[in-house]
Design goal:
The protein has 48 residues and is α+β, with helices and mostly antiparallel strands. It has a domain of 26 residues. Helices cover 38% and strands 17% of the residues. It has 1 helix and 2 strands, in the order H-E-E. A two-stranded antiparallel sheet has the order 1-2. The longest helix has 18 residues. The protein is elongated, with a radius of gyration of 15 Å. Bound molecules: zinc ion.
């Protein structure tokens, strides 16, 4: 059970870092609490 929790924690950590792997700073026009930026792979702006 302890191993399962460790794997789960690692997985969420990994996905969190992957979610920001394409970052490059937030746009100045980003709404408060959000970070909008251009995703170079798609050429589109998205916020999260
Ligand atoms: Zn993004």
């Amino acid at each position: 059970m302890r191993l399962y929790v460790a794997v789960l924690a690692l997985a969420s950590l990994l996905s969190a870092s992957l979610a920001h792997a394409h970052g490059g700073g937030c746009r100045k026009s980003s709404p408060p609490g959000q970070c909008c930026h251009m995703q170079s792979s798609t050429g589109q702006v998205h916020c999260h």
